[in-house]
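Justification of computing resources. Each target in the renewal requires a structure prediction run like the one illustrated here; the chain below, 61 residues long, is used simply to show the kind of job we budget for.
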Amino acid sequence: MAEQNSQSLDAAVEETMDLAHQAIEQTRAEIARSQALSQTEAGLAQAIKQIAEEHGTPADE
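Resulting structure tokens:
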């Protein structure tokens, strides 16, 4: 009986660890996507600023 309980516990621990690893990988992927989006946003903001400066802004006129 104790051996069966131990095997069940081992299986539960292994499953929990697998789920934790999956969650960690998903979180890492989400962080990478977020960083990429932030870089893209910064690039777009810079491009918009440059275009505005090249063409003059309404405040400059």
